[in-house]
Amino acid sequence: MELLLETKSADFLREVFCVPVSQEETGETIVPDSLPDAGRILQACGSVVLRNKDYRSGSVSISGGIHAGVLYLPEDQGAPRALHLYLPFTVRVEHPAATENTRAAVDLRVSSVDARILNSRKVLVRVGLSGTVTGYEPACQELSVGAPEEAADLQLRTAAYQVVRALEYAEKPFQMAEEAELPAGRAPMRELCQYQADVEVVESKLAGSKGLFKGNVALKLLYLTEEEELAAWTCQLPFSQFVDLEHEYGDDEELETAIQLTDFGVEDANGQGRRLLVNLQLLAQCTVVGRETVEVIEDVYSLYHDFTPQWRQVEAAGRLDRQRLTETFRSQTPASVQEILDTRVSLGNPVARREGETVSVTLPASATVLYRDEEGELQSAALRLEAACSTEAAENVVCRPSAALSGEAFAVPSGDGLEVRCNVAFTLDTFSQQSFRTLAGGQLSDERLDTSDRPSVILRTVGEGDTLWSLAKGCRTTPEAIRTANNLEEGAELSGMILIPVMK
């Protein structure tokens, strides 16, 4: 007869792709008639805003833009002036497994910003975009877990494998409308030159069917005072939010939250140059990750019937391990420094290289420093940096690194120049793509086997490679019966002569 096994199913999110993004966007901006001719670029910066995710069969398109700002010195050597422009971008991920039901977590950032003067009235801006796009597809895994009553004599050998994988994905758009006030003692603002927003999640956790997360938005400002002096200020804007989830979760699951800006703006709140109105639109991308047990039936036999098994392959792909490392790195450049005004560091995509079981990760980065030289003139320096770390990982697993700044980057005068210092937090995830054979069903004979000629007990010497299971299967008995007859404890090593009681 055709045997249908008892089954259980588990819903989860199958990761269909995780692709790095590295592309460049360029644009030109015209110096308005109200501003003087451009003479020298001092600094450029940018912030990514995410506008739309478009899901189609075979592809996912991510669209948005970069709010870029350029600070320049006029040809007449007057006070610094600022230009602003918006550079649209589209990131397209093509993958055969992508469908309309795919959902993508996006982590994009500016990895470099460069500006140069084409002529006194036109400036070219070039922005590097880096990050990852991870696509999830709803999936259900059905596994056989036991034999029905009519096949109670079937003996099943099972194995359990632990995997960490995504269980649910949810998004939460939210808005922040905050007022930020310049600290006492700072000169009031006459003109806002540059503003950049960096989002950091400091806590993310689950509470039943809700995901709770909080963090900070670091708002970096460059502005001109009433005396047309350039000043920098960074303020922290905290946030705390929650997202509704479809299922209840406990202590065995974790919430991972990535937040992207979808729009932002900064303006003078009252025209007096001390209070700023900050409007931020953000999108929280929340992934519930849990440790799942995948149980498979590795082998089977019947005590009293002929049984022809049917097998199928199941996947148990997921994250095996996560390591977090913090590295400090620095870079120097010659300069005549009187005062440092502003420091900005942008990270590229980390690259993993393997040598045997050692995985080395390098992270390219760029830094710009705005400072006054010993004559009091405004100057800027551009530096290339590289951070690195390493870990051990088995050759049959994939190491996926990610990185973020830990704390604020800064520059200090050092010897005959300046030195940029910052801490980088590396996250090193190792993944496996495992496939296992498991029992799917089979044919069980209707007639019971004739057991009259079976001996009641077999005395046998344990051979090399013999296990409790192999001996029981070969003699059509049960591992428990052999263990009981020989007073064997669970997990005891087999050796010498053993008694094998045979089922009648």
Walkthrough of the structure:
By secondary structure, the chain is mainly β. 3% of the residues lie in helices and 73% in strands. Helix 1 crosses helix 2 (479-485). The protein is elongated and about 110 Å long. The mean pLDDT is 92.
Topology, element by element:
Elements: E1 2-3, E2 6-30, E3 38-56, E4 59-74, E5 81-94, E6 103-119, E7 122-146, E8 154-181, E9 189-225, E10 230-249, E11 253-268, E12 275-302, E13 307-315, E14 318-334, E15 339-347, E16 351-355, E17 358-372, E18 378-392, E19 398-414, E20 417-432, E21 435-444, E22 457-461, H1 468-475, H2 479-485, E23 497-501
Antiparallel strand pairs: 1-21, 2-7, 3-4, 4-5, 6-7, 8-12, 9-10, 11-12, 13-21, 14-20, 15-17, 16-17, 17-18, 19-20, 22-23
Helix pairs in contact: 1-2
Keywords for this entry:
504 residues; elongated; mainly beta; 23 strands; 3-stranded antiparallel sheet; single chain; 4-stranded antiparallel sheet
